[in-house]
Amino acid sequence: MKLNVKRTCQIGFAFFGILLLWQVYDSWCPTFLTDLFAHRLYGMTSAELKASAPENILNVQWLVGIIMACDNLAALILLPIFGGLSDRTRTPIGKRMPYILTGTFVAAVAFPFIPLFFHQNNIAGMIVMMGIVLVFMMMYRNPAVSLMPDITPKPLRARANGIINIMGYLGGGFATILGVFLKLSDYINITDRSAKLWIIEIPFVVASVLMVISALVLFFTVRENEIAEEMKDEMAEGERLAAIENPVTDEGPMSPANRRMLLAILLAEFLWFMSDNAIGTYIGNYVIYYLNASSSATMILTLGGGLASAVGFLIAGGIADRIGRKWTVTSGLAIGFVAMLIMIFVRPTGAVVGEHGEFSFPAILYVVWALKGFGMALVHNCSFPMVVELCSSKKIGRFTGYYYAASMSAQTVTPVLLGLIFMRTGAWGALPVYSSILTALSALVFITLVKNIKARKAPNPTGLEALGEEC
Fold it and tell me: Is the pTM of this model over 0.85?
């Protein structure tokens, strides 16, 4: 049993498109919303509001959190639906591919309209476009992620997950590089924006084009039905060697032991996504409005974290083979916790370097992001395979839906909750404190409730058996 690296990389083009779009979405949209709410509530741009009454920037974050949470609430409902539907779909191009292609093309068409409506100060139009993108990305996302375990035997999924995550981070990294050269702060911090639409439009257009290209590469290189037929015997052997307490079947309920394992993993996942999404949602605003630094610093920060994540994904499978997936995930959470503890002590530098009065960026945050990126790569690399390990091949879409239901429910709660904490405390420093507490809780759940079960190894043939049946 050997991982087909080439095919896994081809499947990774699906994840390339996912993270490319979400990196642009998460980096730009919270700041767009902050600026629009500042204009609606205070009659001035967010840059003007930051200069005159910076505490009011914090007061609009809960509204930003509500909009971002509504997107995630829709995902919480839609991901399990599309996962279950794709499990039952049968077409000449496969059970996942129709959803991937449809979701890609509709989301790609709608995506560039988000900055266009923002530029026109049309909050309703922008939110509608965000909703359309979200719905069709959910149609795309669950089936795209389910494609890897569909055609990868269970003992090989941690390594395969590392490869497709690296492909995803290449997409996210490309989006981040765009943000380095097309600075959102250069748009936000000026009064006359009439001729600057291109600064915020280009990243969205490029993301849409590359997402379509990645979906077409996936479609023309991965023949879903043919590969599934070829892999039947290996998939059956993978079921026998799975790292689970009780064997899984297509019929009947889960065993109590497997159900307890599933619920424990999903609870820990909910907590670490509460932490991780808090950082992802608010880091752009944290840099612009608290550290008073250029938005390009956020992009360089994200790029460094992505490179550290790629290293984590490369070695996570090997680490899991040695110490088990449980302790690999726990190690990643511990590293992430240390990163958040360091971030608690970060303050604005006060050294003016930018043409709009921006401060220099605190260099220690690059270390924080490298630690966080590496640690969370270990977590994400092993946690998804642990969930789909607990189901048969006929229920992969459904269990992928469970995995994303836990993450999306966390991402529904955390932007609103943290936005209210910002408003109550009046302190951007609440961000790393909040994240560190949740990371510690998720590690505690994982250590106490999840069992460390290693995948069984296929025995090597010996003696006459190694010569084949002809003997």
Answer: no
